Amino acid sequence: MKRTVDGMGLDCGGLSLLAALALAAACSGSGSDQAAAPDAATDVAADVAADVAADVAADVAADVAADVAADVAADVAADVAADVAADVAADVAADVAADVAADVAADASPPEKPDPLSDMAGAVSVLEHVDSDGKLTGSAVAVRFESAAGEVPETLVKEAGGCRYYKAAAMKECDPPCKDWTEYCGMDAACHPFPQRVDAGVVTVSGLKPGTFTATPEDTFWYTVVPDAGGDLFDKDSLVTVSTTGGDVPAFEVTVPGVGTNVVDWPVNYTLADGKDNEFAWEVQGDQATVELIIQTGWHGAPPTAIIWCAAPDAAGKIVVPQEMIEMFPPAGGIGLFQHPCWFQRVSRVLVDTPFGPASVSVTSQLGFSIEHNM
C-alpha cells in the first residue's frame, strides 16, 4: 500500500528499518496527523541517532579499553620479563663467578708437602753456597723433571720441637730379583722401574740479578741451563719467576721470593754435645725464608745411617735440637770416603703439582758443615 507525504509517493513497506522507524508517524495516520509527521520523524531520528551513537561509543570504549588493557598487559609482561631476565642473569653471573672463584682457589691450592727427605718428582733450584760469614762461594741454577719421586729409604723414629729423627730403613729383598739397571727393590719389597727424565718444555728463570736463565731439554730430557751461573743470583728482595712451556709436565708459572744470606756464629766443624740441647743460631734476615738444618752421617753409596732434620722460620733466630735426639745420634766424624754432608740453609719453596707427583721450585742460600759426635 502506498501513502504520500507532502505530495511525494513513498513506499512505506519498502523502507529500511531505520527509515521506517523515523517515518512511522507519517505512514500510520492522515490529515492533521500527517501534518505533524516531519517533527515526529525528526524526534525519532534524533533518538535513533543518539541510541546508535551511544551504542557505537560503548562499543568503541569497550574496544579501546580492551586494546589498552592488552597493550598495558603486554607492556607489563615485557617489563616483568626484562626485570626477571636481568635478575636471573645477575644471579647466574654471581653464581658462576662464585663457582669459578672456588674452582680457581681449589686449583691454586698447593699440593700436600711430601716428607722433607723426599727427592720429589722434579725441581727447579736456584742455589747459592756461602760460608759462615755469608760470603758467596758458588751458585747454580738446576732443572730436572722425572716420572716419579724417589723413595725415602729412612724411617721416622721421633719428632719433637720442630725436629725429626730418622734412621736408615732395613733394605728389602725382592723375589724374584729385579731387572738389572731398569728396576729397583722398593720399601714394599716389590720391583719398581727407575724414574726416567720427562719433558716440561723450555724452562725460563727470570728475576735474578744477572738476568734471565733458560733451560732447554735434550733428547733424553736432561736440561742444560744457559748462561752458566757463577755469581751473586739473588737477595731477600728478589722475586724469582719460573715458567715452562709444557710437555709431559703441563705448563706452569710460579713466583718465589728471594732469601737473605746465612750468617752464623757457630763453627762449621761442629761437635754434637751429649747431656744438653744443642743450639744453632743465625742472624735474622727479615725475609720469608724457612731455615732448615740437616745433620746426617754415613758414607757415599748408601743411605745415611741417621738424619736429624729441623725447620724454623727466619724470625725464630735459632733451632734447638733436643738432647734426646743428640744422644740417639750414632758416632760420627773422622776421615772417610765421601761422608754425607750436613747443611744449614734458608729456603723459599713453592710446590707444583704434576702428573708424576709434587715438584719443587726453590731459592736457597746454603751453608755446608761437618759434625763430630762421640769420636
Characterize the structure shown:
There is one protein chain. The protein has 375 residues and is an alpha+beta fold. The chain has two domains: 1-109; 122-372, no CATH class. It is built from four helices and 20 strands. The strands form five sheets. Strands 3, 4, 5, 6, 14, 16, 17, 19 and 20 form a nine-stranded mixed beta sheet that branches. The protein is globular, with a radius of gyration of 49 Å.
Task: List its salient traits.
9-stranded mixed beta sheet, alpha+beta, 375 residues, 20 strands
Q: What is the mean pLDDT? A: 79
Helical percentage = 10-25%
Judged by helices, strands and strand pairing, the structural class is alpha+beta
Nearest-angstrom radius of gyration? 49 Å
Total helices: the number is 4
- Let me know the largest β-sheet: 9 strands, mixed
Uncertain stretches: 1-38, 96-110
Shape category: globular
Determine the strand fraction and express it as a percent band.
Answer: 25-35%
The number of distinct structural domains comes to 2
List strands and helices in order, with pairings.
Layout: E1 3-5, E2 8-10, H1 17-22, H2 32-35, H3 37-108, E3 122-130, E4 136-145, E5 154-160, E6 163-168, E7 183-185, E8 191-193, E9 203-208, E10 211-217, E11 223-226, E12 239-244, E13 253-257, E14 269-271, E15 278-281, E16 290-297, E17 306-313, E18 318-321, H4 323-328, E19 342-354, E20 357-372
Parallel strand pairs: 3-20, 14-20
Antiparallel strand pairs: 1-2, 3-4, 5-6, 6-17, 7-8, 9-10, 9-12, 10-11, 12-13, 15-18, 16-17, 16-19, 19-20
